[in-house]
Write a structure and sequence with these properties.
The protein has about 950 residues and is an alpha+beta fold. It has 29 helices and 32 strands. The chain has a domain of about 210 residues: Neutral Protease Domain 2 (Neutral Protease, domain 2, Orthogonal Bundle). A hairpin with a 2-residue loop joins strand 7 and strand 8. It binds tryptophan and zinc ion (ZN).
Length: about 950
């Protein structure tokens, strides 16, 4: 259809990362932290020195901060006579002393990664090491270490930010108790916070004051935090299961105190839930949350002083959508749960990151499921996992849940570590059952309290309580890639025997080939003609073990490359329901026909698979339309059309969907579940499954197919939409959320059709809740200017109404950036110059640029390559100020191999341009790793 330009391949100036072959001593450790060097799990050695106590004095000024760090240190082995390595980056050393004696230049060596103090005899026992250094928080645009967010001083130390505050052995297996004194101007910074308990507060000369905080729990440096500024405080309290009273404080910018209620309620629910489900009680008398506007991620679990992106704390019905309310609830819970899964028991090294993140995501997902609808929650998680994590696992950054190596650890806060890691813990829970899983987690928390441990240690506890061998299961931690599970079945009407042949296959990923079969729970059900599950009588000739799991049906434990499961006494051919509840994070391949899928969609006792059947039906249609269009392509056609056979399919499929649009069914079914059934797979969820994509052709097919489905649903959706308007709960923030999910899904269906712009405008204009306003806005932005001037009116009205609320305006930027009509490259450029946009605020950068690159398929993947170039230039520029953000923004470019020409070559050329910056410009380690890995020769995948 389109002519492809010659690939503009110039060999990138990238060098193979050096592989340190011996276990590194302190100097090699220093070297391994430098540019373009990888760190390997196999090189792990315990630190040569322990740091037992930290006494920090932080003296804050407008143009600098003076940090005095007093450490008590002792050698792990008194006879080792090792030099002392301390990390330190972007620190200006004022002085250093050992046991009170000032060190001279000859006593230590400094490079850009830290300092190496030469061994001397008084380092054979405990000694005191003190440094004074100067840093410049006001110039810290990386938002790692101590930085300014507007008028606030705050910190972000995970993973390696503490070394930008003071000299330290900045690795999680060095655990110390901290005392922190903060001194600052009394008027500008009345609130001074750090971890633990407030010990004293006093005024000092020159209109300054200081506060002393002490944290009695030993912790790794990444959990250190401090905050200084003018903040409003909202208070509540919680009584723990043992009757202790905990003060709960949320600190926000003045004026935002009214938006903290939901976060506080969520925190109390999470505290209670962790007591009930895991027996975990909070351990200090105070728990603080601080909201800051400039933050690289969602939130951070610093001991007793959680720091949050304000977008994950603040919520009120007028300005926050239902999705925001849910996000606040789950992130508040997530960070709180880290107090045990992460803080009390922490990671030995960063290869173990999923030990805390996978487990904590699993915990927060179960919490949210308990607070709302379990099936809705599960579907939403899986939808996300299958779209984004599967894509990561199939791309150049694919890595195991416990990676073998990294260049920059910030790049490994990934969907694999978080989401797949959570699935792994979930599988352990499923394999063990509720009771043993709880005993395993109790043992883990008790045995390793106060220690820095590994995923092996976690699994060992599970093995111990269950007396099971999880050796094979642990391949989930070491093997990357999404397993495929291919199923064939055979029914013998004479014998009543039904046989399943199950074959698993784990694809090659960069650096990993010829993988071993995995062990996992695979839940299934045999659905009869009348829609009920057959009693499953598993024949002993089966190769895999099977047992029942409450709420999951029959759990088969797969272990071998090929397994056979035989059922006896099945009176007619069943419809097989596979991987119920998404019991394992795998791709299931089985040839269903339409009738079988419609049957599952209607009857499956597993709600997840009812939804999934509907998704498979839609995906099949997309595939067929694309198949024909691609075939037409070779004859110069590329015609995208619905044929006669599809029309029959559309009839059947849409009448199945219409059941979820019947107002009568709303009382009998969860409307949020209905909404999910009615939502067609995202474009990105579809193409993730395809081997190679011509983006614009696939997009046309997708648009055409979804349009046809929406046409079929128009009448029913319109009626459902109108009837829901008069539901008594529709405008109730909490009780109405599910109803609004369904009603706004109706609006989304209607907004694919030309006649409904006025309806969207009506909703947009009259909405009392942000959910409805945004849904109206999103719907309007589908209409081209030629069809309606309402979208442009809405863009202006929204800006006028919300210009003073930065978080709401993030949505304004993001919805335009995702729109094919109002998010063209010219629009993006114009919006990036908007007075409310900021190149230093991660939320704004994500809203505009990341949304454009990751979600606006039509405009970003312009076959001329202009959008690619613009995003590349933006990334290169941001790399100079905030490498973490620049590196994350690069993800959509790294998928170049998946696309056909011209997209593929054009994207690759931009990656090469990033790798070879002009002139003196240096590329960050963060960006280097992503670019380098995505340009490397891919492994052959079969
Ligand atoms: N530990 C944080 C979380 O759970 C993640 C995080 C917050 C983070 N800020 C960061 C990671 C900055 C790297 C860099 O969920
Ligand atoms: Zn976390």
């Amino acid at each position: 259809m389109s002519t492809s330009p010659e690939p503009t391949a110039t060999a990138p100036k990238l060098t193979q990362p050096d592989i340190p072959d011996a276990a590194p001593g302190p100097e090699a450790q220093a070297a391994s932290a430098s540019q373009n060097q990888a760190v390997y799990l196999r090189d792990y050695t315990p630190p040569a020195y322990r740091i037992d106590t930290v006494d920090l004095y932080v003296d804050l000024h407008e143009d600098h901060a003076l940090i005095t760090g007093k450490l008590t240190i002792q050698p792990a082995d008194a006879s080792s006579r090792a030099d002392l390595w301390l990390h330190g980056e972007a620190l200006e050393l004022v002085s250093a002393s050992l046991n009170g004696e000032r060190l001279s230049e000859d006593d230590f060596r400094i490079d850009e990664n830290g300092m190496l103090v030469s061994y001397r005899d008084d380092m054979a026992q405990a000694f005191e090491f003190e440094t004074v250094s100067r840093i410049r928080p006001q110039d810290n645009t990386r938002l790692e270490g101590l930085y300014r967010s507007k008028n606030l001083f705050c910190t972000q130390c995970e993973a390696e930010g503490f070394r930008r505050i003071t000299w330290f052995l900045d690795r999680p297996d060095v655990m110390a108790t901290y005392r922190c004194t903060i001194e600052a101007d009394r008027d500008k910074y009345p609130v001074l916070l750090s971890n633990g308990n407030l010990v004293s507060e006093e005024n000092v000369d020159g209109n300054r004051h200081r506060a002393v905080w002490e944290d009695p729990f030993r912790k790794p440096s990444y959990l250190f935090a401090l905050v200084a500024g003018t903040l409003d405080r909202v208070e509540d309290s919680f009584t723990t299961m043992s009757g202790r009273n905990i003060d709960l404080h949320i600190y926000v910018d003045p004026g935002n105190a009214g938006k903290c209620r939901h976060a506080l309620d969520s925190l109390k629910k999470a505290m209670k839930w962790d007591e009930e489900r895991y027996g975990r009680e909070y351990d200090l008398d105070l728990f603080n949350i601080v909201a800051v506007d400039d933050f690289n991620m969602g939130a951070m679990e610093n001991k007793s002083l959680n720091i949050f992106n304000s977008s994950c704390v603040l919520a009120d019905p007028a300005s926050a959508s239902d999705a925001t309310f849910d996000r606040v609830e789950s992130i508040v819970a997530h960070e709180y749960f880290h107090n045990w899964s992460g803080n009390r028991v922490t990671c030995r090294d960063w290869f173990q990151l999923s030990l805390k993140e996978g487990f904590t995501v699993y915990r927060d997902a179960c919490f949210s499921a308990d607070m709302h609808s379990p099936v809705v929650n599960r579907i939403e998680h899986v939808r996300f996992l299958r779209t984004a994590q599967f894509a990561e696992d199939a791309g150049p950054m694919a890595h195991a849940v416990r990676p073998e190596s990294y260049m920059e650890i910030s790049n490994f806060y990934t969907l694999t570590i978080y989401e797949k890691g959570a699935e792994v813990v979930r599988m352990i829970h499923l394999l063990l059952g509720d009771e043993l899983f709880r005993r395993g987690s109790d043992l883990y928390f008790e045995r390793f309290d106060g220690q820095a441990v590994t995923t092996e240690d976690f699994v060992a506890c599970m093995e111990e309580v269950s007396e099971r061998d999880l050796t094979q299961f642990k391949l989930w931690y070491s093997q990357a890639g999404t397993p495929g599970v291919k199923i064939k079945d055979r029914y013998d009407a004479k014998t009543g025997e039904y046989q399943l042949s199950i074959r698993q296959h784990i694809p090659d990923t960069p650096g990993q080939t010829n993988k071993k079969p995995m062990h996992f729970p695979f839940c299934i059900g045999l659905v009869s003609e009348d829609g009920k599950d057959f009693d499953t009588n598993v024949d002993s000739a089966s190769t895999a073990a099977a047992s029942f799991r409450e709420g999951h049906g029959l759990m088969i434990e797969l272990r071998q490359k090929e397994e056979t499961v035989i059922f006896k006494g099945i009176p007619h051919k069943p419809v097989i329901s596979l991987n119920r509840g998404f019991s394992a994070p795998v791709r299931v391949e089985y040839e269903y026909d339409t009738t079988e899928l419609l049957h599952l969609m209607q009857y499956d006792s597993d709600g997840f698979n009812r939804w999934n059947a509907g998704q498979i039906l839609a995906l099949g249609l997309f595939d067929r339309v694309l198949g024909r269009a691609s075939a037409g392509d070779s004859e110069g056609g590329g015609v995208v059309e619905i044929d006669e056979a599809d029309k029959g399919f559309l009839q059947e499929y849409s009448s199945a969907l219409k059941q979820y649009l019947k107002p009568g069914s709303i009382s009998s079914q969860d409307p949020a579940f209905c909404a999910l059934l009615l939502q067609l797979p995202d474009f990105s969820a579809w193409i993730e499954r395809l081997p190679q994509v011509d983006i614009q052709l696939a997009l046309s097919c997708y648009e055409q197919a979804t349009l046809e489905i929406c046409k079929q649903l128009e009448q029913a959706a319109s009626q459902c939409y109108d009837e829901l308007a008069s539901h008594p709960n529709i405008a109730d923030r909490e009780a109405g959320a599910e109803l609004r999910a369904l009603r706004n899904t109706c609006l989304a269906i209607l907004s694919r059709l030309p006649e409904h712009a006025e309806r969207a405008w009506q909703q947009f204009e009259t909405a009392q809740l942000m959910t409805d306003q945004l849904a109206g806005f999103r719907a309007l932005l589908r209409y081209p200017r030629s069809q309606s001037n309402r979208p442009e009116q809405a863009i202006a009205a929204f800006e006028k109404q919300w210009q003073n609320d930065g978080l709401v305006m993030d949505n304004w930027f993001a919805l335009q950036a995702a729109s094919r009509e109002y998010g063209t490259l010219a629009d993006i450029k114009r919006l990036s110059e908007h007075r409310l946009f900021s190149r230093f605020n991660p939320n704004k950068l994500r809203s505009l640029f990341t949304t454009f690159a990751a979600q606006n398929w039509a405009c970003f993947h312009d076959p001329k390559g202009d959008s690619y170039r613009f995003i590349r230039e933006t990334i290169a520029e941001l790399d100079q100020t905030n490498p973490q953000i620049a590196s994350r923004m690069t993800t959509p470019l790294t998928r170049w191999r998946k696309y056909s020409e011209p997209y593929s070559s054009l994207l690759r050329a931009e990656l090469e341009a990033l790798a070879n910056p002009e002139g003196e410009t240096e590329i960050s380690k963060d960006l280097y790793e992503i670019v380098y890995k995505s340009l490397q020769e891919a492994n052959k995948t079969d």
